[in-house]
């Protein structure tokens, strides 16, 4: 399964989040329908644009705990000072995608920034 991890500035619209998601899908060479779930951190639990995007796409939204973000941290690829100031992860979108995709998941598209939103894609992998 492919999970799209999302982050954004407060008040980012559904359309801007969708733009970031589409950019990540283009980078991965996949269609939007390949995304099995969305994920974000606890800090974005009530972010309207993220909630609206999950509803529009009709796919699950996983709210990842700070503990899960910390566990995924060694597998992230991007360092964002803003993310570190607000969350326990150097990349909220990457950490959330990895945590939701599972312990052996890996980043297939590192964090992309578009219109105030970030998106990263992680893919579930089987135990090695």
Features:
single chain, 128 residues, alpha/beta, 5-stranded mixed beta sheet, 5 helices, 5 strands
Describe the structure.
- This protein is α/β, with parallel strands linked by helices.
- It contains five helices and five strands, in the order βαβαβαααββ.
- The chain has helices at 14-28, 48-57, 66-72, 81-86, 92-101; strands at residues 2-8, 35-41, 61-64, 106-114, 117-123.
- The protein has a five-stranded mixed beta sheet with strand order 3-2-1-5-4.
- Helix 1 crosses helix 2 and helix 3 crosses helix 5.
- The longest helix has 15 residues, at 14-28.
- The mean pLDDT is 92.
What are the SSEs and their pairings?
Elements: E1 2-8, H1 14-28, E2 35-41, H2 48-57, E3 61-64, H3 66-72, H4 81-86, H5 92-101, E4 106-114, E5 117-123
Parallel strand pairs: 1-2, 2-3
Antiparallel strand pairs: 1-5, 4-5
Helix pairs in contact: 1-2, 3-5
**What structural category arises from helix and sheet content?**
alpha/beta
Beta content? 25-35%
Helical fraction equals 25-40%
Number of helix segments? Answer: 5
Q: Which residues form runs of ≥5 with pLDDT under 50? A: none
The biggest beta sheet reads:
5 strands, mixed
Task: State the order of secondary-structure elements, H for helix, E for strand.
Answer: EHEHEHHHEE
Task: Give me the count of strands.
Answer: 5
> Order of strands across the widest beta sheet?
3-2-1-5-4
Work out the radius of gyration: 13 Å
Principal-axes geometry comes out as globular
The first-to-last residue Cα distance is 16 Å
């Amino acid at each position: 399964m492919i999970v799209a991890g999302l982050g954004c500035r407060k008040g980012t619209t559904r359309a801007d989040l969708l733009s970031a998601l589409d950019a990540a899908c283009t980078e991965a060479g996949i269609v939007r329908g390949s995304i099995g779930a969305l994920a974000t951190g606890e800090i974005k639990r009530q972010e309207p644009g993220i909630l609206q995007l999950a509803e529009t796409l009709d796919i699950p939204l996983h709210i990842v705990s700070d503990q899960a973000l910390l566990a995924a941290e060694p597998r992230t690829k991007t360092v964002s000072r803003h993310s570190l100031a607000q969350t326990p992860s150097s990349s909220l979108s990457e950490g959330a995608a990895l945590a939701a995709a599972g312990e052996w998941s890996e980043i297939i598209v590192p964090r992309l920034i578009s219109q105030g939103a970030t998106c990263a894609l992680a893919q579930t992998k089987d135990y090695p």
